[in-house]
């Protein structure tokens, strides 16, 4: 007991100072956490108030703001303990170069993520095709872009891979053209087939007036004449309209008395000298 009293009497000022500094550190950490949460909350609310703030930016801004706040808090903590922050910053700069060389792939993902946010080839909710991957954009963070495919698969693709690939955005323009192709027999009237397609186009309310729907003969195939109906629809109406029209075009073509032929092939069989049998068969 006497040793404790003696130790306290000789080191009380140092102990109180250390305790005071430790308490300040805890307060700074607590304050940094509160401020970081408040900033993240403010950024999310700002997205709802400002239409120009893309939802894609929110995760990046939240993460960046959190890192900055904690770094500032760390500098204050080091300053409390009398650490020369200027020399530490210089040391961190040198270490940062070494770490940057070691983590060049990771840093390239960050740089690619920033470029994606500034140039905005896609936004959260857009349906895109990147390389061999297709899906809806769920999130862009510092390192990866999160996609969800048609069948509900979760895909996390590095930002550098996305930035280095061709990006096909099916949502950005707000509309999309569909091409409905139907074949009729060579003995059928082409004008009659085109009239059927024009009637369908006039009666389809989901088609846009600008650009206007078109009908045309697109090719002379082996067994049929291919007619095409082209029409534009809003993104939300594209697939329901496309599926409905494929069904309706077939039904209307047959109702008009036109034929949708099967592919035909003529087979010549040589059975003996000077003898040739000819048979026709569906492909």
TrEMBL record:
Pfam families, alphabetized: MS_channel_1st, MS_channel_2nd, MS_channel_3rd
Keyword field: Cell membrane, Membrane, Transmembrane, Transmembrane helix
Source organism: Oleidesulfovibrio alaskensis (strain ATCC BAA-1058 / DSM 17464 / G20) (Desulfovibrio alaskensis)
Gene3D superfamilies, A to Z: 1.10.287.1260, 2.30.30.60, 3.30.70.100
GO-annotated cellular components: plasma membrane
Family, per entry: Belongs to the MscS (TC 1.A.23) family.
Key word Repressor present: no
Residue stretches making up the Mechanosensitive ion channel MscS domain: 105-172
PANTHER family: SMALL-CONDUCTANCE MECHANOSENSITIVE CHANNEL
Protein name: MscS Mechanosensitive ion channel
Domain (Mechanosensitive ion channel MscS C-terminal): residue spans on this chain: 180-259
Residue ranges annotated for the Mechanosensitive ion channel transmembrane helices 2/3 domain, each copy included: 66-104
Localization (cell): Cell membrane
Transmembrane segments: 15-36, 57-78, 84-103
GO molecular function ontology, one term from the record: mechanosensitive monoatomic ion channel activity
Membrane topology: Multi-pass membrane protein
């Amino acid at each position: 007991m006497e040793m404790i009293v003696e130790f306290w009497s000789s080191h009380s000022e140092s102990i109180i100072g250390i305790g005071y500094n430790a308490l300040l550190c805890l307060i700074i950490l607590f304050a940094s956490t509160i401020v970081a949460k408040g900033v993240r909350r403010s950024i999310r609310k700002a997205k709802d108030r400002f239409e120009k703030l893309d939802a894609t930016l929110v995760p990046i801004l939240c993460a960046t703001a959190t890192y900055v706040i904690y770094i500032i808090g760390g500098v204050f903590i080091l300053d409390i303990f009398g650490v020369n922050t200027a020399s530490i910053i210089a040391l961190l700069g040198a270490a940062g170069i070494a770490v940057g060389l070691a983590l060049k792939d990771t840093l390239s993902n960050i740089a690619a993520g920033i470029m994606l946010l500034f140039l905005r080839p896609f936004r959260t909710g857009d349906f895109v095709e990147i390389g061999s991957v297709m899906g809806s954009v769920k999130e862009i963070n510092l390192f990866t872009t999160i996609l969800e495919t048609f069948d509900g698969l979760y895909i996390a693709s590095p930002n550098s891979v996305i930035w280095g690939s061709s990006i096909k955005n099916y949502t950005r323009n707000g509309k999309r053209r569909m091409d409905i192709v139907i074949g009729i027999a060579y003995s059928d009237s082409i004008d009659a087939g085109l009239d059927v397609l024009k009637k369908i186009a006039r009666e389809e309310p989901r088609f846009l007036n600008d650009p206007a729907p078109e009908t045309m003969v697109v090719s002379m195939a082996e067994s049929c004449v291919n007619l095409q109906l082209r029409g534009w629809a809003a993104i939300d109406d594209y697939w329901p309209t496309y599926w409905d029209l494929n069904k309706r075009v077939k039904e209307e073509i047959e109702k008009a008395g036109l034929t949708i032929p099967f592919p035909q092939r003529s087979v010549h069989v040589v059975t003996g000298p000077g003898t040739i049998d000819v048979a026709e068969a569906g492909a």
